[in-house]
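Practice problem: predict the structure.
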Amino acid sequence: MKSNGNSGHRDSAADRNEQANRGNPVNKDDQAQLKARMDLVKHKIMVLSGKGGVGKSTVAANIAVALAMEGKQVGILDVDFHGPSIPKLLHLEGQHLGVGENEMIPVEYVHGIKVMSLGFLMENPDSAVIWRGPLKIGVIKQLLSEVRWGELDYLVIDFPPGTGDEPLSVAQFLPNADGAVIVTTPQDLSLSDVRKSIDFCRKLNMKVIGVIENMSGMVCPHCGQVVDVFKKGGGQLMAGEMGVPFLGRIPLDPQIVEASDEGVPFVYHYNKSEAAKAFSKAVVPLLALEDGDTKPEATLTTLTKKEDDMKSIKIAVPVVNGLLSAHFGHCETFALVNVDTEAKTILNTEELPAPPHEPGLLPRWLHEKGADLIIAGGMGSRAQGLFEENGIRVIIGAPTDTPEAIVKSYLDGALVTGDNICDH
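Answer:
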């Protein structure tokens, strides 16, 4: 697999891989070895983007570090053959893999993160990799089955942009992968390409864990304020339109660039920054995967008998950019939706600016506004108790959608709720 520095030639092992992978990428023995390695990895997370230049590798690296900081055993696999960025981002350039008996030993990074990249196998990092699809498939198989990953809680896999051979091959080799995190920036051009990535996942029956909007505003190095250089909210709006979860916005922070150039983990060294906090929130749904056996199933939520007996009720929905906010305390406005419970119709909707987020204020404020029920994406247990004390029932785990669509689903008995992603 090691390049001789000449982009026009490949070694004999690579040629054998290409021949072996034509028509039948994994034979029975290979499949057994692949299964044995991957059975030791609890969760496989694919990090995709439809477009280059969105900071996908930076997101992948910081997700891996954030998971490791939570005490998880983590590996990161870089299969961007034509532009492997992970060695540079983690300051591992020039590192060499260990070699065991018929296996490769990955490079170890901070917090015990195991790192594998084609960049470690290139004698000359400036050499272009010119490979056809069959050869890529063979190498991907080797990276999954011949690397001594050991027991891992998470394997984060960083891909090149688009929906080509690399993500398709991994999806086929790992049909039980947990799903994909898709990275975009707020601009319309990037969002258009990301829609294709979501469609790609759906065609392969792969779960979309969520969308991260990277470079969502820029943090001023002088005052710390966020300036919307590339707009903001496009990723969340697109996620709502496509019916997939939104994991959060990562602002463009000069410290991220500095950390990336120095090869230090941003979320660790700058953990007080807004961007690091955003990364930490984005991995909450990934951490929830650890509770896979006990994780509550999505539930169908309908009117209670008490509400059904009332002629009308008022439902509060926290809103950001016209869609339900993932956490009620971070919303910009509240939609107060008056509904007729007999006719199961919406009477009217009033949108009010959210008051300052102070402890205990929102439950009292919504009680004064006459709210009977709040439907939210996520909410801490303490806040839920305060709402109940104020006579307001709480539904959490609602999907990202418009307030009217959420309320209509609730009235029709079709509102499906998932996990509380902000339980703290």
